[in-house]
Amino acid sequence: MTPIKARNYINGEWISSENNFESLNPADSREIIGTAPISGLAEVNQAVAAAKKGYESWRELSWIKRAEYIDTFAQLMKRDIPDLAELITRECGKPINEGRADAVEALHMAQYMAGIGRIPNGYTISSEIAAKDAFILRKPKGVIACITPWNFPSAIPLWVILPSILAGNTVVFKPAEQTPIVGHKLMELFHEAGFPAGVINLVHGTGEECGDPLVKHKDVAGILFTGSRAVGKYVQQVAAGDAYKFVATEMGGKNATIILEDADLDIAVNACVLGGFKTSGQRCVSTSRIIIDRKVEAEFTQRFIEKVKRIKVGNGMNEDVFMGPLIEASGLEKWKLHRAKAIEEGAEVLLDGEVLTGGDYDYGNFVSPFVYRMEYRPDTFCLREEAFSPHVAIIPVDGMEQAVEVYNDTDYGLSMAVITEDYRKWRWVRDHADYGLGYVNLPSIGAEVHLPFGGVKASGNGHPGAEGILETVTHRIAFTVNHAKEIVMAQGLTTNV
Ligand code: NAD
């Protein structure tokens, strides 16, 4: 495929740059997917100014009119799903069935938001005084910065951009520097859908050069950030410097699948294979800990390892590949660090993942799954820190209560799955584990756009994505109207002087 020349998109115009960076296929570094501008403060200033200007007229449209633009966009996305799926796989490395799922999830978000435009966006509520009507309404906040990661390069941007614009905000979108061409493709579709100038603007570049000035810009009302905990925490600190600026941070996880003694082990094995190794463990919700009742550990482990050994690693354009490459060399280094730390901390290695070399493997960061057993100890690096790679610990425990105690012993709280046939047990786990996304007899992965997506503790700051974002990008305002000829106040105040 010919490399695609991505450009910034500001005030309805495509803007080229002399300075560009390359986006390579992580499964085959010989293939250049495209190039994109290296942007900084100047481009960010232009994009924010365009969004600020675009806000004046965009906010005047009805929710339904704005939803109609999103509906047009959804139809264009539907047309382009196969192309988008292939581009996602070639640019971020995940197998083609996952590339398709990413694109379809993005489409679902567009369809959902197009429909949401026609449901009530506020309500009437009774006043204490009969002659008054009170309303609770949603109003947009202004210019929103959408900063997104590489691992869901179409779904996550749409989770945050679409609710923002539906509510009347305008957006500056900075996609991850690992997947600029998918960002460019989304912008082409927005352009084709005919959104007015300034409503959605796109600037490419690194976090430090482009993301940082965007976060700090005085005319940015809010930031919707999805990415690592370290950067998310930094973004929160920057936003705290401006009292008016709100921030939603969706960050990492140290997720687990809890397998209780009565679990159906077929479900348990499949849930852990999906949760542990889809996207090569590079999902925020990947299972990196399997917390299992000692009574069923031996049988589960034997069946799980047997299945994991069959995982095919390679270029995700081949339909039979289950695990693609790690996104970049730093991901490989992270995987190596976590593996070395686990061994140093006493892991009993069950599958010694290796760096794969030879043939096509020489052109990507390919590794095989690393699986180990470890008795629980507090304060271990490997059982508490996000590995974001195919790195899975099996931790035996005695019973449900200890399982949840071990589960909760990390700073994170994103996704938790429990495998059990007992409704009393899953209910107890539901109420005592710390997470934003919970599953029973399912893997720890599996978002749907009409559900809130987010975590607790260090995984998020309580503003979940997808369904949840409309709350975040709108002010809920109270508006009271008096229909009487005199003023009658609540709580007995009078006009007597
Ligand atoms: P990252 O934090 O390195 O980058 C995310 C985005 O932030 C990128 O666009 C990047 O350019 C930008 N950025 C980096 N430094 C910045 C700065 N100083 N100022 C402003 N922006 C900056 O994350 P990543 O490597 O792209 O993604 C992996 C991480 O994302 C993992 O920790 C994963 O768990 C997390 N993640 C979380 C969710 C969720 O919804 N909770 C979803 C996907 C990924």
Ligands, ions, cofactors: nicotinamide-adenine-dinucleotide
Number of strands: 22
Assembly category: single chain
Low-confidence runs (pLDDT<50, min 5 residues)? none
The level-1 CATH class of the largest domain: Alpha Beta
Strand order of the largest sheet: 15-16-17-14-13-18-19
Helix content: 25-40%
Structural class: alpha/beta
- What CATH calls the topology of the largest domain is Aldehyde Dehydrogenase, Chain A, domain 1
Question: Helical element count?
Answer: 15
Any idea what the shape is? globular
| % residues in beta strands | 15-25%
Radius of gyration: 24 Å
Number of domains: 2
Describe the structure.
The protein is an alpha/beta fold. It folds into two domains: 4-251 and 460-479, Aldehyde Dehydrogenase, Chain A, domain 1; 255-440, Aldehyde Dehydrogenase, Chain A, domain 2 (3-Layer(aba) Sandwich), CATH 3.40.309.10. It contains 15 helices and 22 strands. The strands form six sheets. The chain has a seven-stranded mixed beta sheet, sandwiched between helices. A five-stranded parallel beta sheet has the order 10-9-8-11-12, sandwiched between helices. Strands 1-5-4 form a three-stranded mixed beta sheet, with helices on one face. Helix 5 links the parallel strand 8 (143-147) and strand 9. Helix 2 packs antiparallel against helix 4 (96-116) and helix 3 crosses helix 4 (96-116). The structure holds nicotinamide-adenine-dinucleotide. Residues 147-152, 156, 174, 176-177, 206-208, 211-212, 215, 226-228, 231, 234-235, 250-253, 284, 386, 388, 414, 453, 455, 465 line the site of nicotinamide-adenine-dinucleotide.
